[in-house]
Amino acid sequence: MIHLYAFALGLRGLPDITGLEDAPLASQCFGGVTGVVSASAGGADASVDAARHGLVVEALVDRARAVLPVRFGQRFSSSEELAALVGTRSSSLLQRLEQLVDCVEIGVRARGPEEHPPAADATGVDYMRRLAARRGVVEELHRALRARALEARASADSVSYLVRRGDVSDFAKEVKRHIVRHPELTIVCTGPWAPYSFAEAE
Amino acid sequence: MTTLAPLEERLTLVDLVDRVLNAGVVLTGDVTLSVADVDLVYVNLRVLLASAGTLDRLCADSESM
Fold first, then answer.
1. Taking CB atoms and an 8 Å cutoff, what residues of chain A touch B28?
2. Are the CB atoms for A54 and B19 separated by under 8 Å?
3. How far is B56 from chain A (nearest CA, A)?
4. Which residue is closest to B50 within chain A, CA to CA?
5. N or C: which end of chain B has fewer CB within 10 A?
6. Distance (Å) from the C-alpha of residue A106 to the closest C-alpha of chain B?
């Protein structure tokens, strides 16, 4: 079987690490798009494999103009099967890669302190007002970050931002400003990652 | 004895695995998942490889249908 890690644009050589089951990485060209793959027999620990998949993708970020991560678990019986599947989507993959040149993803989670049950001296109205105020502060944070990002995707408890490499420092400073200004919030910022959340076009 | 990595490292690993499992290009809808000491299991990507958060969302979606 062949395990697929990512598609890349302008890949400058493979990273000096091995893939799943310690197999060497290989590249497969599909027109202007390069697929990074390795042979995989399966049977290893899925959680270890998932982490290894992620490490390979992250290692590609510094070696390519753009990286389009592939979701873990995409395996193919042969190079021909992979080529046939990619062939039907090669133009959209190339288009998305060109949009992601020099871009990375940053994840931000922000939440206020839990208050269950509300303080004994507070009325229900006071409690709801405090909740609304906290929500407003979190929304203000994400509004400020959205203005510094190209795209944003929200999930259950976090927002992923697509940011140009050159803007990462300013983005991080904006997060830090909010951390200092609102110590009551728990703000967790991770990255920069390969743009997983932006791999599929909107 | 297992020594836990610092919280920051664990958090980063969780974030990485979360992205690996929940995001990225999908060419085929199904995936072959291998688990230690268990034969290859053919599963639907949307169900067994989902993180807890995704499962919660899927459950909520199915209940609202």
1. 74, 76, 85
2. yes
3. 9
4. A72
5. N
6. 11
Distance in Å, alpha carbon of B37 to nearest chain A alpha carbon: 7
Chain B CB contacts of A88 under 8 Å are none
Instruction: Chain B: give the shortest CA distance to residue A42, in Å.
Output: 6
Percentage, residues of chain A above pLDDT 70:
92
CA dihedral A23, A29, A35, A39 (to 10 degrees): -20
Domain membership flag for residue B1: no
**Whether pLDDT at A10 is above 70:** yes
Domain total of chain B:
1
Contact (CB<8Å) B24/A69: yes
Predicted ipTM?
Answer: 0.73
CA distances from B29 to A28, A64, A80, B1 (A): 21, 27, 18, 40
How far is residue A63 CA from its own chain's centroid?
17
Express each pLDDT in A113-150 by its tens digit. Answer: 665 556 666 677 777 777 777 778 888 899 999 999 99
- Does some domain include residue B39? yes
CB contact under 8 A, B57 and A68: no
B16 within some domain: no
Domain that holds residue B36: 28-65
* Residue B36 in domain: yes
Nearest to B57 among A46, A85, A156 (CB): A156
In order of their start, the domains of chain A are 2-99 (no CATH), 103-198 (3.30.70)
